[in-house]
Amino acid sequence: MQIELLKSKIHQVVVTEANLHYVGSITIDETLMEAANLIENEKVQVLDINNGERLDTYVIKGAKDSGVICLNGPAARKVQVGDVVVIISYCMMDFNEAKSFKPTIIFPNKFNKLK
């Protein structure tokens, strides 16, 4: 049996940009991506703590150490610059393998930098 579970989580980063006139996605600082075990084009769920919005999109690599968290395209209408979001990815794995799996969770500071 396969189950879906948490793979990666970036806990509470600040939205630095919202670009409505873009194809769509979320741009994430490459340093944060690497630390959270995310790759470009991976599907993620974005949870906005300020307004309760939840949306699915995919990751675009942002400049390393830039602190960028930018919602692009239609997702830009769901957030405001300055909102605090949680970014989550999930994976599918065998039930027994999942029992010992440990997700990667990072806790950046208020400047979207690793502590």
Care to give the gist of this entry?
It contains 2 helices and 8 strands. It has 115 residues and is mostly beta strands.
List the helices and strands and how they pair.
Blueprint: E1 2-14, E2 17-19, E3 25-29, H1 30-36, E4 43-48, E5 54-62, E6 69-72, E7 84-94, H2 95-98, E8 104-106
Parallel strand pairs: 1-8, 2-6, 3-5
Antiparallel strand pairs: 1-7, 3-6, 4-5, 4-7
Q: What does this protein structure show overall?
A:
The protein is mainly β and 115 residues long. It has a single domain (2-96), classed as Barwin-like endoglucanases (Beta Barrel), CATH 2.40.40. It has helices at 30-36, 95-98, and strands at residues 2-14, 17-19, 25-29, 43-48, 54-62, 69-72, 84-94, 104-106. The chain has an 8-stranded mixed β-sheet with strand order 2-6-3-5-4-7-1-8. It starts with a strand and ends in a 9-residue tail after the last strand. 28% of the residues are buried. The model has no long low-confidence stretch (mean pLDDT 97).
Notable characteristics:
115 residues, mainly beta, Barwin-like endoglucanases, eight-stranded mixed β-sheet, 10% helix
What spatial order of strands do you see in the largest sheet?
Answer: 2-6-3-5-4-7-1-8
What is the strand tally?
Answer: 8
**How confident is the prediction overall: mean pLDDT?**
97
Total domain count = 1
**Number of separate helices:** 2
For this structure, what is the CATH class? Answer: Mainly Beta
- Could you give the order of the helices and strands? EEEHEEEEHE
Strand percentage, roughly? over 45%
Low-confidence stretches: none
- As for the CATH topology, it is Barwin-like endoglucanases
